[in-house]
Design a protein that fits this description.
Three copies of one chain form a homotrimer. Chain A is an alpha/beta fold. Chain A is built from five helices and 14 strands. In chain A, a hairpin with a 2-residue loop joins strand 4 and strand 5. In chain A, helix 1 packs across helix 4.
Chain lengths: 242, 242, 242
């Protein structure tokens, strides 16, 4: 299974062009859009979400991760093998959280060059083809092992106490992972104790809970947390520890 | 064929997570997003649209229907077999119109419990896996027959004289089904006689017609009915009968 | 491979209904949404984008192209074979750019009539079924050759000096194709020389470049060209030739 994690949007031609590139490179299995709406150019959000949501998928999956404000500049094209899952994309910090959390990691420079390389769409020209070949078990000759210490790293705090994503319902995901001692969150002057799920609070009331992928999320039962709190991606929140 | 009818949005990870859950449970056929944008938390709209659009699909199809404001509370997980099509989802009124219109109906409680059950994403954890197994013809042991009288019912009028959905073009679908004697609709001070299609009125003029799935729809030829009439989901309309 | 190019939107049931129609007509291969968000009713944009993006795909692909403000009126249903790729859709000018640019073209009237023909959704009832049959190599008996001179033609200029599409990032595509002597563009009082890619200008600065599909595009490095210039689809730009 190949999964796309991008900021390309569901609209427009880009996702279809990447899917067709996967097919042209011989992979016949499922291709899913895990996220097409990573906040635009936001490597930090992408890194948190990629790590939190990849765990839902089995070993052998390949994540094509393209949030790439520097496309066309000289950042490396990268492939990471972390705990049995593959990640391909630009070497710009996208894999920071995966690298921190995984127990076994190998890094590779993508040494393959396509016959046609555009200056602005490496998702189609490099990353989707490489993902197809890795998913077919034919990536080895196209990748050059590199030291994990040569991967571009970023010194974010270990838990990112900020909003990294707002979903279709207005639920606000944070970069804070579930951990012993986490008991709630402060946001917009309110203190929200951790509850189990939406229906634990009144309709229209806000709540903080650990979402189905293990990160702290702020919601309003049958309402929108983004409008309730006037919050957006990048805004700070304050976790409460016992 | 498995079809998703949800209010999850096309953006975000939820649809991909449900598709992956279907695959993990062994179903290899097509998975289509029939609606990912049911008006949020709107069980009434979902019920009308599910019934009107399911008829486009052959017997044996499985509709994963998740509009579930009460997720995590104690409402039952349900499977309905109606005129040869399967519907799985929460027992909250979603299947009201299907139950009223079908000629042969059987109801089942989903007695299977997943190894991992989140408090907020039963689409991924319960309904997609069950749909996969039903589609593979292996649902029987996971379902317990129940009386159709124990399904949660809702006392909506038989034709819902209101806007249930506004599409990408601004066309406003109603809960009114095509029937002998229906000759038009009153909306926003205007009376619109039923016409056959868009090009039967001038460019920019409003029209009422029976859409390609048999429900009364209000449109503007090459314009937007939602902005023309200032209408939105839930607004009342008045059908005109001969 | 079958590709949809429509103004139907990613939301709503229409794309899934067309995919199901393809399956009902026996085609089992990939179906991709190349564009679901062609500017609504905009045949001109559709014609430019269809031509520019079809070249990314191999011979034998079938493009179901439905931007169809006159649906239900008496315009012909058409199939075009151009340089080995098939295009099906209404005869309303959609194929103008494909017809001008291709070196080998054949035109066909779709003579097949479905058992059920709605007045408003020929994408589902005519074009998707025909595409499925063409993709299976079984289109011949359903198509009647017609003179290329009988296809509806439009007298647009050869390069459309206007915005035809704005993508998820706010990049504005034009109808101007890459050509020797093209050196830049004037827009909103600014003159933008042609550069290679985003990172060739400062963050926040505008640029003009040839996009990954060979058309002139106006962008802002890590910003939005649509808001920077206050531009939208249909607005004029002025190409600069050496």
């Amino acid at each position: 299974m190949i999964l796309f994690v991008t900021d390309f949007g569901n609209d427009g031609p880009y996702i279809a062009q990447m899917k067709a590139a996967v097919r042209r490179n011989g992979y016949r299995g499922d291709i899913l859009n895990l996220f097409s709406d990573i906040p635009t150019y936001n490597i930090r959000s992408a890194s948190v979400l990629l790590n939190a949501y990849a765990h839902d998928f089995p070993e052998g999956c390949v994540f094509v991760s393209v949030v790439d404000p520097g496309v066309g500049s000289n950042r490396l094209p990268l492939a990471i093998l972390a705990d049995g899952r593959w990640y391909v994309g630009p070497d710009n910090g996208l894999f920071e959280l995966v690298l921190r959390r995984a127990t076994h990691v190998e890094a590779f420079k993508i040494s393959w060059q396509p016959a046609r390389l555009s200056a602005s769409f490496h998702g189609r020209d490099v990353f989707a083809p490489i993902a197809a070949r890795i998913a077919r078990g034919q990536g080895a000759s196209l990748l050059t092992p590199m030291s994990i210490h040569d991967v571009h790293r970023v010194d974010w705090p270990d838990d990112l106490s900020e909003i990294v994503y707002v979903d279709h319902f207005g639920n606000a995901m944070t970069g804070i992972e579930n951990a012993p001692g986490l008991s709630g969150v402060k946001i917009g002057g309110e203190t929200l104790p951790l509850v189990r799920t939406f229906s634990d609070v009144e309709e229209g009331a806000p709540l903080a809970y650990i979402n189905a992928n293990g990160i702290l999320e702020i919601s309003v039962n049958q309402g929108r947390a983004d409008t309730y709190f006037g919050i957006e991606v990048g805004d700070a929140v304050t976790p409460i520890w016992d």
